[in-house]
Amino acid sequence: MNKGVYLSLLSIGLAQAIKIPLHYIKKREWRPDLFFSTGGMPSSHSAGVSTLTTYIALKQGMPTFDFALSLIYGLIVMYDAQGVRRQTGELTLQVNSLNEFIEKIHKDESVKFKQNGPKKLKEALGHQPEEVLGGALLGILVGMIGHKCTKKDRKSAKITIRF
User: Fold this and answer.
1) What are phi and psi of 65, to 5 degrees?
2) What is the pTM of this model?
C-alpha cells in the first residue's frame, strides 16, 4: 500500500478515537464503543478523504488527474455523510419515537398485549455540517503532517556509496 492509504486509514482511526474524549467532555459519559460507531464529531469519512486529497495535492500537485479524482470523490463522500446519511438518521429518530408511542398506547389498553418489538434503530448515522467540517480539518492536518514526514524520508533515503 502507498503512504496516502496509510495516512488516510490513520486519519480515520484518529477521528474515531477522538470521538470518545469529545463525548466524555460533552456528556460526562465514558463510551469506548464510540470508536466503532458511525456519526459524531469529527466525521471519519471526511477525515479519510481529506487526508488523501491533501496528501495527493502536496505530493503530486493540484493540476493532476489523481487530485481531481480524489477531490470530487471526497466532496461526494462528505455531502453524503451530512446529507443522505443524516436524513436516514432523522427518519430513524421518528421510527423509534413511533415505536415508543405505540408501546404507550398498548399499556393503556385493558387487554394485555405482549409483543417483542424490533431492536431500536441506531439514530446517529450521519453527520451535522460542523462534524463534517471538523473531520475535513483533521484530515487536512493529517495529510499535511504526513506529507512533511514522507518528504523527510525521501531526503534521508538518498545514500551515497563511495569506494
Assistant:
1) -65, -40
2) 0.69
